[in-house]
């Protein structure tokens, strides 16, 4: 369901006077008909992906004491991205001050990085700082977090893989190979396993581990949000965590699956999110390796060769 907004910015204005000023050096990168550079154009049909793709366009500029409104208009003019900027108004009393002056020099940086640096310089008289987030209809909302916090949504994250604890068995049974050999030759039926113990290691309580994960998220992802924002919540329930928060918080937990692939390295280096997943392709099992094993086969003791994992008969 599309959520109506009363604060859509009118930022696609003619910027002839702004562009002609020597305070801004325009980027030489050309854009395609969709408004994004050809090398960063998104193949996805998701409107959020299209907006992010346009915000990957490199920008070179020198802002010297320009108003925040002029800087935002320049970013929109360069990228043609769909931005919804929360300006300060009489209705809400909260928002970005369009008359605040910004001084910033950037060279060949993605527009999304330029936007974040501008937001870091912009004052926030309401606490919580400034940020940006995506909407389901493809707009990028920009403004104080106190305004972004009004757009909450609920997501359910499966954390069963993070709760799993593999048991350890330090007291493994030993095998009496002589006894096993006698049994294969018609000897007694005594078990070849010695020192068998059925004591299992105690498993840490699942709820305790889940609480540790919740605390970790609250410490790493927008810590101030969980303290000051009474509208958001995070709690554990049967192998999942249920998070009710604005989009920029969800981005901090799992990121966006539709990041433009050409810029994914910059996104990772920029530490824009903390993933809850694990790349098993580069993982190893600590403490495991190939070792020779002896067994009784056909009435004789046979030792395996680690270099030859194939079976025998």
Number of domains: 2
Shape: elongated
Adjacency order of strands in the biggest sheet = 2-5-4
Q: β content, as a range?
A: 15-25%
Topology:
Elements: H1 16-20, H2 47-54, E1 58-67, H3 68-79, E2 83-85, E3 101-110, H4 111-121, E4 130-134, E5 140-144, H5 145-148, E6 152-158, H6 160-163, E7 174-175, H7 177-184, E8 193-194, H8 206-220, H9 223-228, E9 233-237, E10 240-246, H10 247-254, H11 264-269, E11 294-297, E12 300-303
Helix pairs in contact: 3-4
Describe the structure.
- This protein is α+β, with helices and mostly antiparallel strands.
- It has 2 domains: 16-148, no CATH class; 153-163 and 203-278, no CATH class.
- The protein is 28% helix and 20% strand.
- It contains 11 helices and 12 strands.
- Strands 2-5-4 form a 3-stranded mixed β-sheet. Strands 6-10-9 form a 3-stranded antiparallel β-sheet. It has a two-stranded antiparallel ribbon with strand order 1-3.
- Helix 3 runs antiparallel to helix 4.
- The longest helix is centred in the C-terminal third of the chain and has 15 residues, at 206-220.
- It is elongated and about 95 Å long.
- 24% of the residues are buried.
